[in-house]
Specification:
Length: 73
């Protein structure tokens, strides 16, 4: 799993696994799920205002910083 957070745009991406991307579906304004060719979810993105929906500070403390988290300043 890989988590990317961009502080400037307040955007969060969580990639559950690697795979060949096929399509995306916006499930809520700014919430997009990416799917592979088999229809399995590969990840989710929150394109704006992610901190309104996710406790970013807590997320950064819970997930080990072994390269699985990328924070863009």
């Amino acid at each position: 799993m890989r988590i990317t957070y961009d502080k400037e745009t307040d955007a969060l991406a969580i990639d559950f696994r690697d795979g060949e991307y096929h399509e995306s579906e916006e499930i809520y304004d700014g919430f997009v799920i990416d799917f592979d060719k088999s229809g399995r979810a590969m990840g989710i993105e929150i394109y704006h205002d992610a901190s309104k929906f996710v406790d970013i500070d807590r997320l950064m403390k819970v997930i080990p910083k072994d390269g699985s988290i990328v924070v863009v300043e």
